[in-house]
């Protein structure tokens, strides 16, 4: 498991944000943030509810989403927000929201 980013919820738009149709949320590219921050702005009709919509999250790149998520409570996903990227959101035993991401290469490189 390798640290990827922290996701912070906002109601303000941010430069460079893109829309993820599957979750109806606007997100920024954490790979372009100097501190690996991803801003998330949910549309009012987003199907995302509960801890993922209410709490910040910490994200990790994992070799196997299935293996890394074993024993965790899945609260969203897994789903594919970008080609080659599988993501799931989980709750730890102490209530933290963790995003696990399985990918090869760099699916975030849009340049």
Question: What attributes characterize this protein structure?
Answer:
111 residues, mainly beta, 2,3-Dihydroxybiphenyl 1,2-Dioxygenase, domain 1, globular
CATH topology: 2,3-Dihydroxybiphenyl 1,2-Dioxygenase, domain 1
**Treating each run of at least 4 consecutive H or I residues as one helix, how many helices?**
2
Q: What separation lies between the terminal Cα atoms?
A: 26 Å
Order of helices and strands: EEEEHEHEEE
Query: Major sheet: size, sense and barrel closure?
Result: 8 strands, mixed
Question: How large, in whole angstroms, is the Cα Rg?
Answer: 13 Å
* Major beta sheet, strand line-up: 2-3-4-1-5-8-7-6
Mean pLDDT: 92
The secondary-structure class comes to mainly beta
Total domain units: 1
Which strand-content bin applies to the residues? Answer: over 45%
What is the name of the CATH class?
Alpha Beta
